[in-house]
Amino acid sequence: MKDIGAWILVGVAALAIVGALLGPSETEPRPAPAFGLVNLDGDVVSLADFEGRVVLLDFWASWCKPCVKTFPALHEIHDALADQGVDLLVVSLDKSAEDSISYLTENGYATDNVLWGSLAEARAVRDLYEVVGIPHSFVIDRTGIIRYSGHPVHLSIDTVEPWL
After folding, report:
1. Range with the poorest average pLDDT among 11-15, 80-84, 133-137, 142-146
2. Which of 57, 111, 114, 120 is least surrounded by CB atoms within 10 angstroms?
């Protein structure tokens, strides 16, 4: 009987971890940490450049199957809401800029909103945002407050609209 209790505890802990990784964030809204990175076109991009706009911030890599699967939906949300002041920034955690560029160009995506700089710099931004696993997305409102933190599968136009 002791073994059953231990397995129940392990199961509950596993469900809590999966829920934290896959479900919407339950944390209090907080200011988005400031950062700047070079985009894949070679231009310096800073979060401050988007002051007064809603930012969808996604941590992503071309080798990450869940990232590649959710990438089109994030672009659809952005495309639908861009005229209402929504921007999409993607922090690439690929090992090289070429890996990102190759995937993006082969699949018809822009490179000017994908930030990399170097793997160390991208990882530093990931750490600022306390991202443990990817994909991980944030919605940052017009005042710079994080309103959503979680797996991008839970993002939709309805999720973003309250902050327009």
Report:
1. 11-15
2. 120
Q: What is the pLDDT of residues 49-65, one digit of tens each?
A: 999 999 999 999 999 99
Q: What is the pLDDT of residues 76-107, one digit of tens each?
A: 999 999 999 999 999 999 999 999 999 999 99
3-state helix, strand, coil in the chain (%, to 5): 45, 20, 30
pTM: 0.84
> 73: closest CA among 61, 85, 56?
56
How far apart are the C-alpha atoms of 124 and 117, rounded to whole Å? Answer: 11
Q: How many CB atoms lie within 10 A of CB 22?
A: 13
**What's the CATH fold of domain 2-163?**
Glutaredoxin (3.40.30)
User: What gap in Å lies between CA 86 and CA 56, rounded to an integer?
Assistant: 7
H or E element: which one contains 107? Answer: none
Place of tokens 């940052």: 140
